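Deliverable D4.2, example record:
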Amino acid sequence: MPLAFATDTDAAIPIHVIDADKADSAIPAAAKAWAATHGFKGGLGKVLTVPGADGQIAMALVGYGTAAKRARGRFHMGTAAARLPKGVYRIAAGLNDADLEEAALAWLLAGYSFDRYRKPKDPIAALVPPEGIDAERIATIANGEALTRDLINTPASDMGPDELEEAVRALTADHDATLNVITGDDLIPANFPMIHTVGRASTRAPRLLDMRWGETGPQLTLVGKGVCFDTGGLNIKPGGSMGLMKKDMGGAATVLGLAHMIMGLNLPIRLRVLIPAVENSIDGNAFRPQDILTSRKGLTVEINNTDAEGRLVLADALTLSDEDDPDLVISMATLTGAARVAVGPDLSPFFTDNDAHAAAIAAGGAQVADPVWRMPFHDPYEAMIEPGIADLDNAPKGGFAGCITAALFLRRFVESPYVHFDIYGWQPKAAPARPAGGVGMGARAVLAALPKLLSL
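Output generated by the structure prediction step:
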């Protein structure tokens, strides 16, 4: 079911959000004795319901902790949403306007559960949308995030290139967009040689998904890595490294979630979404180390590791993205382990040569609690991706600056203004409003930044 706010608002239970630094004055007088009896002092994530004369819940106190504690995380209201008894609630006091939007989004996201393969969990308490927020916008963003999570969480047995195409078709129909698909051997005459090469060893045909929406405004093209499962190819991954490879289409899942937000909010842009959807498998026709591939752009690539396949399929899609002169191209991919080593699983590293774009994305991420971190397109490392026998090396030796060299590789295929995100797409441990499993990263930061990125 879609994530949604409560519509029955008449009997909503008031919530008082209590800053631990101001607990003495913030706890309502009618609840002070009850709070003291239960030792409630506004600790972060603590919840206390206060009964009325009839024994029913008259109000709820939600601990908001100290400013220092809050700064160490986000979506704190998601914890309260999961802990409160069932019912309908409204935020009555304790949050300023800047915090209400995050709190409302946190509440909706706390209601997300991936139940495709098990008995559905009971729904959490419902929230009346706080006054002063755009409830429809928040719900649209939450459901875009839910789409991303669902796609990543679905195992490869049920989320191959066929099923990813079905998901894009459903999104296309929901928003009256258009979709063009090039599949299997048709990729060869259409000049997508590297998408075909990476996916040809699988029994599930590779394809390029090309969705368009909007008739006027600046053009934004989103390119998402859609490797539905990655064995590593002939450079096969060890079992421990293959265990999470259902999430290797996390870039595609994230751009689809972002596309849902953009279209659902009816932003005044022309949107294009390109997803090279493949499975990197092993068979007699699998591509090999030392093979040299010719890309759509004409650049040749020496294959020094078949497990560095994401940049190959993205390269052909990025070349296509350039061909109708977009105002901005953004790629998202679960591309390198080096990015995780650099910033961990919670930050979304991104690359751009444009300082104004970088500032807009950083500001957007801070505004909507979607943390990002700019990484450098470090030109001196260009030599590391030039093998000598071909134009480019898909897996430079040495192991240094892996996320930077991968980003530099992709930049070779784009002439338009370009931003690249190397995301993780996975929540290793449960956190407020983010259960362990697939998670969107960077999409809300980009959404918040779009007015500046595209001069809307």
